Structure formats: structure tokens, C-alpha cells
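Quick bug: Pyruvate ferredoxin oxidoreductase, delta subunit output formatted oddly.
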Amino acid sequence: MKITVAALTEPGSTIVNKTGAWRTFVPVVNHKRCIKCSLCEIYCPEGCIHQIDGLFVPDLDYCKGCGVCAHECPRKAIDMVLEEK
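Here's what came back:
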């Protein structure tokens, strides 16, 4: 059995390592309910939610599925859904 170990060698290096592959739940944004308060973007511990064309969209290459965005959303516009792989 081969074990691969990943290590961060310098601050900010996670941008080159796509870290979202191991999540169980994925955030799904209901853009009709979203009031664009940007709390999801502010509270995301991975900094992977970005506003694109006026919509808040998680970057699933880096999202770990923690659910902080869904918890902080005042309109409950983000659902954490079991990811199908």
C-alpha cells in the first residue's frame, strides 16, 4: 500500500493544491432566495465562495463542505447536499 502525504510548505500555497476532493457534502445555492449579503463569502473559512456575475458561487475545487456558509446565510439560501461521486 502506498501512502501519499501532502504538506503545506509556505503560507498561501493551498491555492495550487485543490483541496475539495474529500468532502461529503456540497453547498448548493438557491440564487432566488439569496439577498446578496455576502455573509457566505465573508465567513467561508477556505475563502472559496466568490461573486461571479452578481451570484455567489462556491469553488468546488477548494470547498471542503464544512457548511459554515449554509449556517451563516440569513435566508437559508444554501443547502448542504450529500455529494454524489
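Actually, after a second look the formatting is fine. The first strand starts at residue 25 and ends at 29. Closing.
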